[in-house]
Specification:
Number of strands: 7
Distance between the termini: 13 Å
Structural class: alpha/beta
CATH class: Alpha Beta
CATH superfamily: NAD(P)-binding Rossmann-like Domain
Largest sheet: 7 strands, parallel
Radius of gyration: 17 Å
CATH topology: Rossmann fold
Number of helices: 8
Number of domains: 1
Oligomer: single chain
Strand content: 5-15%
CATH architecture: 3-Layer(aba) Sandwich
Strand order of the largest sheet: 3-2-1-4-5-6-7
Shape: globular
Length: 248
């Protein structure tokens, strides 16, 4: 499952799952493109990335996905293309929780921000950066799902709706891209993981009972492996994929 020399964009890479993926992938020789809105955190993650592999290089892109426009996405495309010939993968990891309240009481500005970050931005980035993915040998497009993407639950509001939307977006991109390009599309639910977002959603939960983001690495590596090209399945939950990998 080598990702040596592959150039991978990870959104929301300044914390949580995105940060862990960036660090671990860099150790395996990948070129990491960090995308986030907090420059200080991005710099801190950049300093943790491995630089020991030949010709390995990394890139920071500071961007607020809530403000992403077609023009800003084009600037991101230019910045990436100036450093890398191809883009081997995009991991759409960035998301915000918004408020945990009933729909009746949900604040409209918070609703709009969640939709922009969690759903609108992946759409804009994907359609803009697709041209660089098409040039890769095994390009991957990975969206991040959630347990609340399959069944609506009280008080999950905009976050749940955005994840329902991501599921549909991933399915449409799969149907459109896998028949016309070599881009493989996956939608992955990492399940209960020890992150700041999880802590915000479940403040009474003991974080020590949860898996760490690092335990997700093998699943993401499989997505980038040649073996996954043969899979007709595009939606995976962590427990299912983890069991599958452990049984082989």
């Amino acid at each position: 499952m080598s990702i040596l020399n592959k150039s991978i964009l990870i959104t929301g890479s300044s914390d949580g799952i995105g940060k862990s993926l960036a660090i671990e992938f860099s150790k395996l020789g990948a070129n990491i493109i960090l995308l986030g809105r907090n420059s200080k955190k991005l710099d801190e993650v950049y300093d943790l990335l491995d630089h020991s592999h030949a010709s390995q290089k990394h890139l920071i892109i500071e961007a607020d996905l809530a403000l992403l426009s077609n023009e800003a996405a084009q600037e991101i495309l230019i910045a990436i293309s100036q450093e890398f010939e191809v883009l081997d993968g995009i991991i759409h990891n960035a998301a915000i929780l918004g408020t945990m309240s009933s729909l009746e009481d949900y604040d409209l500005s918070s609703w709009d921000e969640v939709m922009k970050v969690n759903l609108r931005a992946p759409f804009i980035l994907t359609k803009t950066l697709k041209v660089m993915l098409e040039s890769a040998s095994l390009p991957r497009l990975i969206f991040t799902s959630s347990g609340v993407a399959n069944k609506g639950r009280s008080f999950w509001g905009a976050y749940s709706v955005s994840k329902f939307g991501i599921k549909g977006l991933a399915e449409i991109f799969k149907d459109e891209l896998e028949t016309t390009t070599n881009i493989k599309v996956f939608n992955f639910d990492p399940g209960k993981t020890r992150t700041n977002m999880r802590a915000s959603a479940y403040p009474a939960e003991d974080p020590n009972t949860l898996k760490s983001p690092k335990e997700l690495i093998d699943c993401y590596l499989w997505f980038f492996d040649k073996e996954s090209s043969n899979s007709s399945q595009s939606y995976f939950e962590f427990s299912e994929l983890s069991n599958q990998l452990n049984s082989t």
